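HUMAN: You are asked to prepare a plain-text protein record giving the amino acid sequence and the backbone structure tokens, both parts labelled.

ASSISTANT:
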Amino acid sequence: MTLQNNMEILGQQIRRARKQRGLLQAELAALVPTRRQVIGELERGVYKGSLAKASDILQAMGLRLTIEPVRFPTLDELSDE
């Protein structure tokens, strides 16, 4: 999975969480505070800003960034195909 894929997934999750909370991008931006354009960039997966700012946005929505290991298939799983 590429960085771009990861950013797109993060953006989709942020958009979903924002909409579930009934917030507009401008309202979320005001909570952080940041510009509405930053929220839009994050949601579209094109954000190139700091991880600290992204973390602030997640925190404003009661979310956190987590890291999980990449799981590769075992040899047994590959040979079953």
